[in-house]
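User: Okay, second chain of the day. Same drill as before: sequence in, structure tokens out.
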Amino acid sequence: MDFKKLLAYQKSFELAMSIFEISKSFPKEEIYSLTDQIRRSSRSVSANISEAYRKRVYPKHFISKLTDADAENSETNTWLEFALACQYISSENYSKFSEQGKEIGKLINYMINNPEKFGVKVEQ
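Assistant: Same drill. Structure tokens below.
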């Protein structure tokens, strides 16, 4: 299986692209702060999932990269809270993105808790 077929990867990539699109409307003075941070953290979720999948021969590395993905997912939610508080996004978009992030977090945690279902050889 290719990492691009993982549901967690697909959903995190979709969310990152939605955040990219909406962040185009953020004020220019935010380009090197909030805009950059939210784009980096949201993209990092997918990147870490793909790295984890490629490291599945090493169970501890697999889990480590997935916990990095989960942390980046949480960071993205924090940046979304700032975007909402600064009135750069609507409460509707915040809620939608936040729910997507929660779903992604559940998928990542499923992978962490069930590595054998993703080709990881777990020692007995």
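The two ends are 24 Å apart (CA to CA).

User: Thanks, on to the next one.
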